Amino acid sequence: MIEQIDNILLHDCQIHKTEVLLVGVSGGPDSLFLLHVLNKNGYKVVAAHINHKLRPEADEEARFVRRFAEQLGIAYTGREVDVQGYASERKIATEEAARILRYETLFEQADRLGAQAVLVGHTADDQVETILMHLLRGSGISGLRGMQYCTLPNPWSKHIMLARPLLSTWRADIMRYLEQNQINPAFDQTNLDTAYFRNRVRHELLPTLMEYAPHFRQNLLRLGQVSRDDYDLIQENVDAAWDTFNTAQEPEYLAFHRTGFTHLPPSIQRYLLRRAIEWFIPGMTDVDFECIERGRNFLAEDKPSGQVDLMAGVRLIREAKTFWVTSLNDLPVPEYPQISAAESIFLPVPGKVRVNNGWVLEAAQVSKIEQIGAWEKANADRYQAWFDMEKLKGPLVLRARKSGDRIQPEGLGGHSIKVSDLMINQKLPARARRKWPLVCCGDEVLWVPGYRLSSQASVDQGSTTIIHLKLVRDLGT
Amino acid sequence: MIEQIDNILLHDCQIHKTEVLLVGVSGGPDSLFLLHVLNKNGYKVVAAHINHKLRPEADEEARFVRRFAEQLGIAYTGREVDVQGYASERKIATEEAARILRYETLFEQADRLGAQAVLVGHTADDQVETILMHLLRGSGISGLRGMQYCTLPNPWSKHIMLARPLLSTWRADIMRYLEQNQINPAFDQTNLDTAYFRNRVRHELLPTLMEYAPHFRQNLLRLGQVSRDDYDLIQENVDAAWDTFNTAQEPEYLAFHRTGFTHLPPSIQRYLLRRAIEWFIPGMTDVDFECIERGRNFLAEDKPSGQVDLMAGVRLIREAKTFWVTSLNDLPVPEYPQISAAESIFLPVPGKVRVNNGWVLEAAQVSKIEQIGAWEKANADRYQAWFDMEKLKGPLVLRARKSGDRIQPEGLGGHSIKVSDLMINQKLPARARRKWPLVCCGDEVLWVPGYRLSSQASVDQGSTTIIHLKLVRDLGT
Lengths: 477, 477
Description:
The structure is a homodimer.
Chain A: H1 2-12, E1 20-24, H2 29-40, E2 44-51, H3 58-71, E3 75-80, H4 83-90, H5 94-112, E4 117-119, H6 124-137, H7 141-144, E5 150-151, E6 161-163, H8 171-180, H9 196-212, H10 216-245, E7 246-249, E8 253-257, H11 258-262, H12 266-280, H13 289-300, E9 306-311, E10 314-318, E11 322-326, E12 344-346, E13 351-354, E14 359-366, H14 374-378, E15 384-388, E16 396-399, E17 406-407, E18 417-418, H15 419-425, H16 430-433, E19 438-441, E20 444-448, E21 452-453, E22 466-473
Parallel strand pairs in A: 1-2, 1-4, 2-3, 4-6
Antiparallel strand pairs in A: 5-6, 7-8, 8-11, 9-10, 10-11, 12-16, 13-14, 14-22, 15-22, 16-19, 17-18, 19-20, 20-21
Helix pairs in contact in A: 2-8, 4-5, 6-9, 6-10, 10-12, 12-13
C-alpha cells in the first residue's frame, strides 16, 4: 500500500522528494493517513488546514490538526475562509463555495511556501463514486477515468500540481493503518465535502450494485485505470491529427483542413472537436455528446459553406477546403480585399481607391494594346484586368454585390451567370463574399477581381483607349 | 427509426439488398417488427422460427410465425430443436442450450438458403442491459461496446454474418410501430432468452438507476457507441504494433520483439496481449485483467529469461530480445543445434556427427597451421574451431551441459567461468541452452559452438596436428 503511494508520487506525478509538498488536512482519516505516511516516508510535507467555519466544532478541528502535525514535527499552516459569505455573494451552494475557497486557499499557501504540489486525500472509494456518477450522468472514456493522480495545469495553478496519491488506496486499508498506528481521527469529516447526490450514491446505490456484483467497486476502479491508459493512447492519436490538419490557431479561431478531418476515424473527430471547444472555454470538460455529433454531421455534409452553433458561443464555420472553430460571430477576413456593403465608390481613371485590409484598386489608362508593358503582361495575375473604355456605358464604380447581380464572363458566349453562384463555384471563401469588391458600370458587373472578367468591355486589337485595373495589397502605406 | 435501421444494414453491415437475409423470428414484438420493416423496405427476407419445445404454447407460436410470414408473402422456414436433451447431455443450463441450438440451427438454415446474414432482433433496451451487465461483471472499453451491429466471423460461421440492426431502436418505439400497423405479437417472448440475472437487471436494477439519472439508458447506449469507435481506433494502433513487433506466428506460438513491446503505451500492450491469447483460444473475450497485468509485469522485469502462465494453458516465455506467447509446454527449437540431454557421443577425427534439427558437426585433421586454407580462414565463423590435438588428454565427445560445467575461455588468462553463466551472458536463447551441444574432452568443456572456445587446447605456431571442427546446418541430406 505504502509502496503504491510512493510509486504514484514518484512515477505518475514525478514529484521530487526534496521539494515541499502541501498536504490538505481536514482532520478526517484519509488526510491524516496521507500526512502520516508521507512524513514517515521522508517527504518534506507541510500540513495545511482550511477552517470552513461551518460547524460548531470547526475551530476544535483546526486545533486538532495543528497538534497532530506538531506531534509529528511537521510544519503547519492554517487558514480560515468565509464560506457563507462567498456562497451568498456568488449565489452558489455552500458545498461548492467551500470547495472553491478550500482549493484557492491551499494553492495560495502552496505558492507562498514554494511547494511543488498540493496533495489531497481522495481515496479509491471516492474514485469509484466519481466514476459511477460520471456513468450515471453520461460520459465517455474521458469521464470513466475518474480523478487523476496528477493534474497540471489545474484551475488553480499553472505550475503547482494537484496530486491525489490515494486514488488506489481503499478506505478500509486506511482505517486499518490508523488503528495499527493508534491514530484517532477527531471525527469523520469525509461527508463534509460531498453533496447530497454523492452521499446517496455512496450509501444507497453502491451497496445495491454490490448485491448484483460483489466485486463491483474493484471492477469500477480497474475500469478507471484502463480507461486512463486508453484515453492517453487516443489523445496521442488526436495530437497527431491536430498537428497534421490544423492550419491556424489564434485566440479567437482555429482552422482545420476539412477533408483531412472528415476522413479521420470518428473517435479522433470527436476528441479533436472537444479539444477545439476547450480552446475557447478552458477547463470545459462537460461538452455534451449531441453538440459534438452536431458538429461532426455538419462537417460531413457535402456542402461548401455554412455555419452551426456548437455551445456557449463557439461555432463551426465551414468553407470548401477549411473549417473554422471560433468564438467570433464572423471570422475576421484580414487577408481579403473587402468593401463596406453599403458603399458605392466612384473609380477615377487614372486614380486609386483604397479598400479594406490594405488593398488598393489602381486604375491607369493606355491608348493602345501594345502599350501594355511586357512586364505587366508577364506578371498579369487574376488581380489585373483591362477594359475597352469606349465600350463602357458610364463611369466605373466599386461596390459590394447586390442581390440579383449577374455577370457575362468571357468565354461563355454571352451567357450570364449569377455573381453569387460564380463566387460559390470559384470557391471564393464564404465569409469574404458579401463584401468582395466588384468593379461595375451602372448595374453591369464587369469584374470580380481575382475570379472573373465580363466580356462586355473586352479589349481587342481595335481598342484605342484601354483602362488597366490592378488590385494590389499595399500594407506599406 | 426505419431510416436508421436501413443505414445500419447498408452502411455498418454492408448488406446488399439483393441478397437473402434470414431473420430469426420468435414471434415476440422485436423480431416481428424486424421482419415487417425489412419486408416493407424491399429486403429479400426469409423468416426462420426455431421451436425450442420448452413451453406448452411452443407449437402454437411456430404456427403463428408461419401464418404471419405467409400473410406478408415472406418465405418461411421452421425447425424444432431438442433443448432439454442437449442441456442434459452437455450439462449446461436450459437457457444456454436453447441459445446455442438456436444460433446453430439459424446458421444451418442460412447456409442452406445461401443467405448473406442471420438477423436477430436485439434492441437498444437489450443493448443497455448487456452493457450494464458488462459493467457489473468488470470490463474495459471492449465490453462497454455491448453487442455489435455486425459480427463476422462469428462462432457459427466464417462467411455468414450475424447482424443486429435494432441495437439502436428502443422497444417503446417498436411497440408503437406494431400498434400503428395493427400487428399483435402472439405473446411477449422477450424474457425467454434471458437468464435470471438479466431479468433482475432489467426489472429491478435499471429502474433503480434511472431514479438517480433519468437519462441513464440513453447515456449507456451512447457510451456503447463512443466506446465502439474508441475501441476501433485503439485496435488500429494495435494492428500497427502487431505488424511492427511480431516476429513469428504459428498455430502453437507467437513471437514478439521484447523491448519494442515494453516501450508501447500500456493500452496497446494490454490489447496486444489479449489478442495474442485469443490466437490460441478463438472467441475468448473473457480474459481477465489480472492475467493481462501479470503478463505485462513479467515482460517489464529486467531479466533475460523465464516464463509465466497466463490462462488456460497459454503462457509467456521471455528471452533476451524476444518473448513468446504459446500453448506449448516448451517451445520447439527447430532452428538450433540440439542434442539429447542424456547422450554423450564420441567424435571421430576425421568424421561427422549428426545432431538434431539438421545440424552436423564435422571434424577434420590438418598437420600444420598453414594448411588451414585461405577460404576456411576467411569464412571462419563462430561455428568453427581449431584445436591442437597433442594438447588433448583424451578423445573428443559431444554432449549437453551438466550441472557444474565450467570452461576456461580464451582471453580470460586461464580464469574459468560456469558454462550456464556464459550461456546467459552470451544471450544464448534460454529454451535452447539445456540441449546445446558442447565439445568436451573428459570433463573439460573445450567449445560452446557459436559462443566460446577454451584456451586449454589452443592452436599455435608449434602445433603439428590440428583438429578443425565445423558445426553446419545441412538440411539437404
